Amino acid sequence: MVQHNSLYRDEHLEVDFQRNLVTLDSAALVLTRKEFELLALLVANACEIVPRDVLLMRVWGYSREIRTRTLDVHIRRLRKKLSRYGDQYIETIFGVGYRFQRYREPSRIPSYLPTFMATVA
Amino acid sequence: MVQHNSLYRDEHLEVDFQRNLVTLDSAALVLTRKEFELLALLVANACEIVPRDVLLMRVWGYSREIRTRTLDVHIRRLRKKLSRYGDQYIETIFGVGYRFQRYREPSRIPSYLPTFMATVA
DNA sequence: AGCCGGTTTTACATTTCTTTTACAAGTTAA
DNA sequence: TTAACTTGTAAAAGAAATGTAAAACCGGCT
């Protein structure tokens, strides 16, 4: 069964799950196998928390209880390659795992102000 | 088996017990694990007093007789994160414990006056 | 063998979360 | 009222997770 339209896309990032292609600001992003698998898994579950165990299981085949820092290292490389969007795209959920977030235009409006007031600032 | 409707909601606060999500005035409230567990336990027993022992037992696994101020500290952090509703939501029952109260619109009518007189003030 | 790209480990720094400490402030009972 | 006790609070200490750079490892290649 062939799945069509299997790609993620937002303002800056594009991930083609079929062809293992990633594009950042319309420039190809070269990722290693593990880096791609990790990113793909996170992006496939965009906006949802993916626990460390799940990542370690699905990307590395590690069962729980295996103590390793390789996940963190790969996360770091991904963030680096995502350059200035790295931290925004890949959010760490302390004690749980990571979450990929869709790109959102940064708002200069303080979020604690009601919308109708914010137009002034 | 998926349990539906496992959430609390009032005018300002929303607690999703399933997903560990809390929203204050429709803005996500980031809580640590302990903070969430504490709030969840209180909210789950809304309008009822939850004794300190119970909180310390269910959230920390502490048996009675353990002298600690960590509960108070966490209560404080919760109140702070609930910002201006903190004191209203989390009520202290001296010598017993705490009670979460549903939000009630503050009335500018002195409560010691009969309603029909209050229209003048 | 030696090189090379990819991956993992190591060791330490940093950050985040939790608990304790010490004291202030509030409450109750005598 | 004071004395005993409870809760509030800020700051320090402690514990644990994550970030990071660099070294070590590993398999495929020439």
Describe this structure in words.
Two copies of one chain form a homodimer. Chain A is an alpha+beta fold. The first copy, chain A, has one domain (7-100): Arc Repressor Mutant, subunit A, CATH 1.10.10.10. The first copy, chain A, is 34% helix and 20% strand. Chain A has five helices and seven strands. Chain A has helices at residues 33-44, 52-60, 70-81, 86-89, 115-118, and strands spanning 7-9, 13-16, 21-24, 27-28, 49-51, 90-93, 97-100. In chain A, the strands form two sheets. A four-stranded antiparallel beta sheet of chain A has the order 1-2-3-4, covered by helices on one side. The first copy, chain A, has a three-stranded antiparallel beta sheet with strand order 5-7-6. In chain A, a hairpin with a 4-residue loop joins β2 and β3. Chain A is globular and about 40 Å long. The N and C termini of chain A lie far apart (53 Å). The A-B interface holds A 94-95, 111-112 and B 27, 32-33. The structure holds a DNA duplex (30 and 30 nucleotides).
Short description:
Two copies of one chain form a homodimer. With 121 residues, chain A is of the alpha+beta class.
